[in-house]
Amino acid sequence: xxxxxxxxxxxxxxxxxxxxxxxxxYANAIRRRNLRIYLREMDAIGPxxxxxxxxxxxxxxxxxxxxxxxETILLRGVDLPxxxxxxxxxxxxxxxxxxxxxxxxSATMVWATIACIDPLPLLWNAFPFHPFASxxxxxxxxxxxxxxxxxxxxxxxxxxxxxxERVVAVGNQAxxxxxxxxxxxxxxxxxxxxxxxxxxxxxxxxxxxxTA
Length: 212
Description:
By secondary structure, the protein is an alpha/beta fold. The chain has one domain (3-207): Uracil-DNA Glycosylase, subunit E (3-Layer(aba) Sandwich), CATH 3.40.470.10. 41% of the residues lie in helices and 12% in strands. Strand 7 (166-170), helix 7 and strand 8 form a beta-alpha-beta unit. Helix 5 (105-114) packs parallel to helix 8 (196-208) and helix 6 (145-161) crosses helix 7 (172-181). The chain is globular and about 45 Å long.
């Protein structure tokens, strides 16, 4: 199918109006383009697992437009066993000024773990926009119930767009978010705050289980 089928999805994201405590990163054309490229790359892979975090962080998806992807990962790319994904050579661009690239520990740990999974899981967030503490855009906060309702249709939309057979929450907050959305899912430990070993073990367990 044509990659243009993702255009409406991205356009709908960009049109969502949020409170003054959340940022719509898809109002930016570069981030919209980054997301379209990512979705088209993933379409070629055919992911069967959807990994869902809680919301983008101010050092990750807020800047790049792609969940669990810092600017460092975005531009340097990730080498998979049989292909390469992301990277400036694939058309991804930095949306912020200056040469310094953002890094995010969770993004680095997630990609180090999922790069060996075939097919590669699709990454998303229950609330696809960046929620922050009032007056501090460089912070992160838990999305509200109303914000999760805003994100619900995009999670469900992605499940229809891709051959998803299993939805996996990354961490307790993501699990509660998906539960509130009424989406059947499994859960793994979030890799932050000392959870890397359990996250890796949880992903290995899910990868080895049949998806059907």
